[in-house]
Recover the amino acids of this structure.
């Protein structure tokens, strides 16, 4: 749905000065998504977040 584990399809996040990353998405209600954060270095190398997948659940 949002990237399909393909870094070239990743959704960029916005950083704020209070050290919060965010993004506005249109998503279905009561949807559970597995995800990981990635970093794209200046060398274009992709670094995946270590550890298990994270889970995000939508509501409203």
């Amino acid at each position: 749905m949002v990237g399909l584990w393909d870094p070239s399809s990743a959704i960029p996040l916005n950083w704020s000065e209070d050290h919060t990353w965010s993004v506005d998405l249109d998503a279905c209600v009561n949807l559970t998504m597995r995800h990981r954060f990635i970093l794209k270095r200046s060398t274009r190398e992709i670094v995946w977040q270590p550890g298990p997948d994270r889970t995000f659940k939508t509501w409203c």
In short: The radius of gyration is 13 Å. DSSP finds no helices and six strands in the chain. Residues 26-60 form one domain. The CA atoms of residues 13 and 23 lie 5 Å apart.
